[in-house]
Amino acid sequence: MPEMLTESERALAGRVRDFAEGVLLPLADNGEDPRNARQRVIEASKEAGFFAMTQPKAFGGTESGALALTIVRDELGAFNTPYAGAVFGPGPGVLGGASEQLRSTHLAPLLEGRMRGGFGFTEPDDAPSPTAAVLEDDHWIVNGQKSYVTGGADADFINTLVQVPGKGPAMILIDTDAPGVELVRTFSSLDGSHHAAFEFRDVKVPAHHMIGKPGEGMPRALQQIGDTRLAFAASAVGTLRWLDAFLVTHLKQPDRSGTPRGDKEGVRLRYSDIRMKAYAARSMVYRTARLADSGEDIRNEGMAAKIFTTELVGEAVDTAIQLVGGGALVVGHPLEALYRQVRSLRLAEGASDILRLNLARGALELDKGRI
Ligand SMILES: Cc1cc2nc3c(=O)[nH]c(=O)nc-3n(C[C@H](O)[C@H](O)[C@H](O)COP(=O)(O)OP(=O)(O)OC[C@H]3O[C@@H](n4cnc5c(N)ncnc54)[C@H](O)[C@@H]3O)c2cc1C
User: Fold this and answer.
1) Does residue 193's CB lie within 6 angstroms of at least one atom of ligand 1?
2) CB of 232 closer than 6 angstroms to any ligand 1 atom
3) How far apart, in whole angstroms, are the C-alpha atoms of residue 99 and residue 112?
4) Cβ(73)–Cβ(238) under 8 Å?
5) Is ligand 1 within 6 A of the CB of residue 79?
6) 360 touches ligand 1 (CB under 6 Å)
7) Which atom of ligand 1 is nearest to the CA of 350?
8) Stretch(es) of the chain classified as CATH 1.20.140.10
């Protein structure tokens, strides 16, 4: 629970708050070029000791546990500032299980920020057949398509889910400058993030670019997604804290009649719902992080936390807009921006209903998970 932090964990939370106040808040709306601002955050985060918290010790990182990462994400979320996503350096993702060769040619430069990677899982609804890889001598021949690769236009490589005929799914690293890789479309989503769609035509990929063995692709891909679910949940509860503080200020102010907005019973009921569920959400996330740090399998709890917190933050921002009124929909209002930002959380890294089905499967068929 957030109340039961050790002295050093409380100090970590304090350092995050100092960082948000000293580095992130001054960058909000200061007109600086976003690339420069992002770079400044990265440099400041390295100096403050946050950047390497998501990176393995073998590569110079400080590899922090789930609770420490949750504390940082929760505190950052509570400031609702731009560039919070630049605070942590890239983690290894599926490349954590890559061959020695890939670790030096791709993983090390990725962690140092010299290379960028994308994740190719989602395929277009009208794909003629799933992306497939066939072994020929010492290389794979890949054919297929991926429709939603975040950061794909700037990626040096894509960790791609492919089907190996007769063996099942596999993860393979495809360099975006390899002959036969075509970037067919770039697009942005509601939250402002940028994505790309790719086609692969007879792309020749070295055999050692396969991560793990054929047949292991789905668990590896899902693990990559699974690792980020608690991260989404922790950021979402931080955002709920920001929202709560925003609403408290708003509801204490007088409306046209001269009485505080929060004096109306109907308004209080709506506000209490948000506060009550936010309390449950924050408790859930910290409990899940502690379970993860004690070595427990948190696949089911991570899914539950991701569904609950991301649906809640969407519902809460929506209610907050209703309580504030039309002014909250004016472009540039913090709630307008937040509304766009949180909508994608219910789809990215696992659509809510698909995760619900997995949660039910965990309990009904696998006897896994806890309440
Ligand atoms: C901001 C953002 C970033 C993303 N980044 C990436 C990325 O980097 N790499 C990548 O590969 N993908 C990425 N995606 C895509 C994302 O992973 C998919 O949108 C998500 O997995 C859902 O898949 P889909 O869009 O194909 O929808 P579908 O799988 O078609 O699902 C659409 C809806 O249909 C219903 N549904 C589907 N299947 C079932 C079922 N079995 N049971 C019940 N209901 C079901 C659900 O309501 C579901 O929400 C990103 C998406 C967003 C929004």
Assistant:
1) yes
2) no
3) 18
4) yes
5) no
6) no
7) 21
8) 219-364
- What are 154's two structure tokens? 């700037």
Does residue 200 have a pLDDT over 90?
Answer: yes
Please work out whether the CB of residue 123 comes within 6 Å of at least one atom of ligand 1.
no
Test site for ligand 1: of 224, 347, 358, most ligand atoms within 8 A of the Cβ? 347
Inform me whether the pLDDT recorded for 205 exceeds 70: yes
Is the CB–ligand 1 distance for residue 120 below 6 Å? yes
In angstroms, what is the span from residue 119 Cα to ligand 1's centroid?
13
pLDDT (tens digit per residue) in 59-103? 889 999 999 999 999 999 999 999 999 999 998 888 888 888 999
CATH 1.10.540.10 placement within the chain: 2-91
- pLDDT computed for residue 225 by the predictor: 66
C-alpha span between 370 and 368 (Å, rounded): 7
- In Å, how far are 44, 75, 298 from 362, measured between CA atoms? 42, 31, 11
CATH 2.40.110.10 in the chain is located at 117-211
In this structure, the residue with its CA closest to atom 40 of ligand 1 is: 354
178 lines ligand 1 (CB under 6 A): no
What confidence category does residue 212 fall into, taking pLDDT thresholds of 50, 70 and 90?
confident
CATH no. of 2-91: 1.10.540.10
- pTM for the full predicted model: 0.93
Going through 107-248 in order, the beta strands assigned E by DSSP cover 117-120, 132-136, 139-150, 157-164, 168-175, 181-188, 194-206, 210-211
Alpha carbon of 317 to ligand 1 centroid (Å)? 22
Task: Determine the topology of domain 117-211 in CATH.
Answer: Butyryl-CoA Dehydrogenase, subunit A; domain 2 (2.40.110)
**191 C-beta closer than 6 A to ligand 1:** yes
CATH 2.40.50.140 fits 219-364, yes or no: no
